Amino acid sequence: CGVFGIFGHPEAANLSYLGLYALQHRGQESCGIVASDGYHLKSHLGMGLVSDVFKKDDIFENLPGHAAIGHVRYSTAGGNDMKNCQPIMVDYARGSIAVAHNGNLVNAMEVRTQLENSGSIFSTTADTETIIHLIARAQSDSLIDRICESLHQVKGAYSLVFLTETRMIAVRDPNGFRPLSLGKLDGAYVVASESCAFDLIEAEFIRELDPGEMIVVDKDGMKSFSPFKETKNTPCVFEHIYFARPDSRIFGRMVYTVRKEFGHQLAREYPVDADIVIAVPDSGVPAAMGYAEEAGLPLELGLIRNHYVGRTFIEPQQSIRHFGVKLKLNPVREIIEGKKVVVIDDSIVRGTTSRKIVKMIRNAGAKEIHVRISSPPTSYPCFYGIDTPSRKELISASHSIDEINRYITSDSLGYLSIEGMHEAVTMHGDDKIGFCDACFSGEYPVKFPRLKSDKQLG
Ligand code: 5GP
Ligand code: SF4
Ligand code: MG
C-alpha cells in the first residue's frame, strides 16, 4: 500500500490526490482521502484507481480544509472489498480519527480476538482496524500517549499516518520495514511512502523517518518522538528489488541506482556468452541496464509493454494473471531472431510469467535464452505487507534452480545470491543496514505468534 499526508496547506485534499497518483504503483484495489477543516473530518473512498475514484471535481469541494491524508491499497490482510478501503475513519468518545496504513501486523488476529472477547465490534476484516480499537480504549489522557500505548501492543510492519481534527501524526514501526519520508511544501509538512510523491507536488524532500520514530504536526509545527525503547533497522529489501518506484529515494538510496547495482552484481555472478540483453519491462529494466553495462553487451528493447495493463501480480485471480502476460508484453522479432538472449526480470514468484515469456521469446526466433533474476529465489512468504502467495505456490520453495530452469524452458537460469543482494543494496558500503530478506532466507526479523493458516508457511 501507499500512504500520504499533508498538514497546513489550503489545497490539502487536492495535493493528496496528486500524491496518491504518484503512489498508485503501491496499490490499485482501492484508495481514499480524509480531510480536516479543523473541526470535522470528511472522507471520500472507493474501489479502483485514484483517477477513477476521484473523477468528479465536486469531490474536492466536499473535502475542505488545511490537512488531509490518503491511501492506495492492495490487500495483504483482509479481503478486497469496499469495507476495507482506507483511510479508516471513526468517531469515538474523544473526537474523530482517521488512519492510513502501509504494512501488515503479525499479531492482529490475536489482538482482535482479545478485543472481540471484551466487547469490541469490528466493521472491517483489515488488520489496521485493531489499532483504532486499541486507541479508542487506551487509558492515557493525551492522544499521543494513547497511540503509543496502542502501538506497543501490535507487532509487525507499519508505516502509519493519522489525522484528527487538529493534528497529523506519522509513525514507522521499530523495525522500519516500510518506507516513509518527510517533506515540506510552502510551509506545510508532507509525508509519503515514497519521495516520488514529493517530486510531483514539488515538495522539498527533508528526510526519511527513522525506524520507530513518530512525528506530530499541528498548527505550532512539527515535533519528533521516539516512543520505542528498542529499534532495529530491518527495512524491506524487496522495496528496492521490485515494489518502490525507481525514481524514489528510500532507505537512504535511490531505487534506480540500487537496481542497476543488482544488475552489475548479477552479471558478475552469472556471466554468459550472449548477443543481447533484454529486460522484462518495467520491473526488470534498471537491473537489465546494469547487467548489460557490466557484461559489455548491448541492451535492446526486445519486449514491448502495453502500458494500459496494470501490474499483473496485484490482480488477485490466477485466471486473470494467466491472460496478463500476453496482454502486457509483445516480443520484437526483428531484435530477437537468431540471437543468444539474456532476459532479466526482478523475481520469479510462481514461475508462470517467466515460462510464458520464455516461450514468447523462443517463438520470436531466439537461438538461446538465458534467464537472469535480479533477486535470490523467493522461497518464503512475506508477513510484513508484500503480497507473496502461500509457500506452496512459490515455485522455488519446492523446486531446485535446475528444475525451475526446465519448467520455464530456458537454456540457463541464474539468480542473484543473497550475499550479492546485500552487497548491492548497500552499494558495497560499510554502513550495513540489516535489511529484511526473510522471503529469500526464511529468517524473519519479527516473529509471529502462531503459524496457523495456509498463508502462513503452508
Ligand atoms: P510469476 O513468477 O508469479 O509468474 O510472476 C513474477 C513476476 O511478477 C515478476 O515479473 C515480478 O516483477 C512480478 N512480481 C513482483 N513481486 C511480486 C509479488 O510480490 N508477487 C507476485 N505474485 N509477483 C510479483
Ligand atoms: Fe520485504 Fe521479503 Fe522481508 Fe517481506 S519478507 S518485508 S518482502 S524482504
Ligand atoms: Mg515484472
Describe the SSE topology.
Elements: E1 2-7, H1 12-22, E2 30-36, E3 41-47, H2 50-53, H3 58-61, E4 67-73, E5 88-92, E6 95-102, H4 108-117, H5 128-137, H6 143-151, E7 159-163, E8 168-172, E9 181-185, E10 188-192, H7 196-201, E11 204-208, E12 214-218, E13 221-225, H8 237-243, E14 249-250, E15 253-254, H9 255-269, E16 276-279, H10 285-295, E17 299-300, E18 303-305, H11 318-328, E19 329-331, H12 333-336, E20 340-345, H13 352-363, E21 368-373, H14 395-398, H15 401-407, E22 412-415, H16 418-425, H17 438-441
Parallel strand pairs: 16-17, 16-20, 20-21, 21-22
Antiparallel strand pairs: 1-4, 1-10, 2-3, 2-4, 5-6, 6-7, 7-8, 8-12, 9-10, 9-11, 12-13, 14-15, 18-19
Iron/sulfur cluster binds next to helix 8 and helix 17.
Catalytic activity: 5-phospho-beta-D-ribosylamine + L-glutamate + diphosphate = 5-phospho-alpha-D-ribose 1-diphosphate + L-glutamine + H2O
Family: In the C-terminal section; belongs to the purine/pyrimidine phosphoribosyltransferase family.
GO molecular function: 4 iron, 4 sulfur cluster binding; amidophosphoribosyltransferase activity; magnesium ion binding
What's the total helix number?
Answer: 17
Round the mean pLDDT to the nearest integer and report it.
93
Largest sheet: 7 strands, antiparallel
**CATH class identity of the largest domain:** Alpha Beta
The name of the CATH superfamily of the largest domain reads: Aminohydrolase, N-terminal nucleophile (Ntn) domain
CATH architecture of the largest domain, please?
4-Layer Sandwich
Instruction: Give the terminus-to-terminus CA distance.
Output: 24 Å
Count of the domains: 2
Radius of gyration, CA atoms, in whole angstroms: 22 Å
CATH names the topology of the largest domain as: Glutamine Phosphoribosylpyrophosphate, subunit 1, domain 1
